């Protein structure tokens, strides 16, 4: 079972007792505004989705590494963060990263803090070679989280995605293991890590 800690957060695998929290998070309108493709539509869908998450955690070839984010002091749920393995190569896993948190926690640095710890885990403990992620250009907060953690912009796709009744531009970011090492060493040398 994965359990990571930061100064203010606990990031851990889900357990059976987390269903209500999981369901509440993935049906919250504001939280899931930019993640409509994985927003849950019903309790039945939620139960199946959650059962798949729990089953995958036990799999020899685990694909989903999404973790429950909670405050260390109160254990209040902040959101979820993690990645999906999209390929396993001879030099390591290629994964797609994602995160979503309750609006009341936006702008407090929680997601950046969690992502820093998750990237450390991915590159040092889980044989990840390449992380990819992205967001709609208007989602400035999400892009700031990526930049703050050393991710590198690879592309800007104009009018790429239909969202909320109109075409929107999408940004794509990446981070390779060697880039993360270089970035984290530079960051640590400045006394920030």
Can you characterise this structure?
This protein has 5 helices and 8 strands; from the N terminus they run E-E-H-H-E-E-E-H-E-H-E-E-H. The radius of gyration is 16 Å and the shape is globular. 32% of the residues lie in helices and 35% in strands. Helix 1 crosses helix 2. An 8-stranded mixed sheet has the order 1-2-3-4-5-6-8-7, with helices on both faces. The mean pLDDT is 94. The protein has 193 residues and is of the alpha+beta class.
Mean pLDDT: 94
Helical fraction: 25-40%
**Number of discrete helical segments:** 5
Indicate the proportion of strand residues. 25-35%
Radius of gyration: 16 Å
Which class of secondary structure composition applies to the elements? Answer: alpha+beta
The biggest beta sheet, please?
8 strands, mixed
Global shape: globular
What distance separates the N and C termini?
A: 25 Å
Number of strands: 8
Strand order of the largest sheet: 1-2-3-4-5-6-8-7
Task: Provide the succession of SSEs.
Answer: EEHHEEEHEHEEH
Report the uncertain regions: none
Which tags fit this structure?
193 residues; alpha+beta; eight-stranded mixed sheet; globular
What's this model, at a glance?
Helix content is 32%, strand content 35%.
List the helices and strands and how they pair.
Elements: E1 3-5, E2 9-12, H1 19-27, H2 43-57, E3 67-71, E4 77-89, E5 92-101, H3 110-125, E6 128-136, H4 140-148, E7 152-163, E8 166-176, H5 177-189
Parallel strand pairs: 5-6
Antiparallel strand pairs: 1-2, 2-3, 3-4, 4-5, 6-8, 7-8
Helix pairs in contact: 1-2
């Amino acid at each position: 079972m994965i359990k990571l800690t930061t100064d203010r957060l606990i990031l851990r695998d889900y357990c059976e007792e987390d269903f209500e929290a999981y369901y509440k998070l993935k049906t919250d309108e504001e939280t899931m505004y930019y993640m409509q493709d994985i927003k849950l539509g019903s309790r039945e869908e939620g139960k199946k989705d959650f059962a798949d998450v729990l089953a995958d955690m036990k799999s020899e070839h685990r694909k989903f590494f999404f973790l429950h984010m909670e405050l260390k002091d109160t254990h209040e749920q902040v959101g979820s963060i993690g990645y999906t393995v999209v390929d396993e190569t001879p030099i390591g896993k290629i994964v797609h990263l994602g995160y979503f948190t309750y609006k009341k926690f936006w702008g407090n640095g929680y997601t950046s803090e969690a992502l820093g710890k998750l990237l450390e885990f991915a590159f040092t403990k889980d044989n990840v070679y390449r992380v990819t992620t992205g967001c709609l250009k208007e989602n400035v907060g999400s892009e700031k989280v990526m930049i703050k953690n050393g991710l590198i912009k690879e592309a800007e796709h104009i009018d790429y995605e239909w969202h909320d009744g109109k075409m929107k531009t999408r940004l794509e970011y990446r981070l390779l293991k060697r880039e993360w090492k270089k970035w984290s060493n530079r960051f640590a040398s400045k006394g920030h890590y």
